[in-house]
Amino acid sequence: xxxxxxxxxxxxxxxxxxxxxxxxxxxxxxxxxxxxxxxxxxxxxxxxxxxxxxxxxxxxxxxxxxxxxxxxxxxxxxxxxxxxxxxxxxxxxxxxxxxxxxxxxxxxxxxxxxxxxxxxxxxxxxxxxxxxxxxxxxxxxxxxxxxxxxxxxxxxxxxxxxxxxxxxxxxxxxxxxxxxxxxxxxxxxxxxxxxxxxxxxxxxxxxxxxxxxxxxxxxxxxxxxxxxxxxxxxxxxxxxxxxxxxxxxxxxxxxxxxxxxxxxxxxxxxxxxxxxxxxxxxxxxxxxxxxxxxxxxxx
Length: 299
Prior knowledge:
This protein is of the alpha/beta class. It has a single domain (3-298), classed as 3-Layer(aba) Sandwich (Rossmann fold). The protein contains 13 helices and eight strands. It has helices at residues 3-23, 27-33, 75-81, 108-121, 135-146, 173-181, 184-193, 198-201, 204-211, 219-229, 256-264, 281-284, 286-298, and strands at 36-40, 49-55, 59-64, 85-90, 128-133, 151-157, 244-249, 270-274. The chain has an eight-stranded mixed β-sheet with strand order 1-2-4-3-5-6-7-8, sandwiched between helices. It is globular. The model has no long low-confidence stretch (mean pLDDT 95).
């Protein structure tokens, strides 16, 4: 594929995002989407542009979303955080609205390489704070291990992938699984499962944001490639002497009670259990989560 072909695919991706943005029902999602900047990376990524939310002034915070999600996941805490920090929210490589022609492989190693290159382009070399949600928690730990001299503090929100070994899903099961995850009823069910009280908290706005990025060209193939790699696993071994706090919902039905208890037992981890909260503290309890984040990062 020639460079012009890559640029054409990237333009298609940008056009899809602009249309998707205009369709957003959640005003907080639209507010967040309006701060997207398209950051051009080097030849390692075919000189393509990647969507990155950048807003606010102050010390930098990097927010990393979960599996098969997007930057929109942080819509309920973004406005609060940008009052005191420079907030940076990329779509992880192969997820969200990121261009799917940047590489032929989508795996944890590539995701970390992408984040390292992004931080170089943004000239962020020290005092970086990271928030990682669900799978983004594992990404945060691996990234911090790679660039430890640049990291100040970390907050993990219901981190996933801290234990176990990678479970590689071979072809064609990886493609079948990705197609299954694209089914409307499956998306709706997964969205509801993430909330502590879905009957009261999940409506059309939440379901739209959970699925809006599926229209990106190459969504299924990048997801299948990531599944084939085995994804993030066993990342608690990357925990070092960087201050870390973990927020977990006591009603988390995705991680489950056993996983949360294992997280609670990790040494050098400042664990906080949140009542009436599911898998997404920043969505279920945004005001409380934002206060804990700011108190910890500014303290």
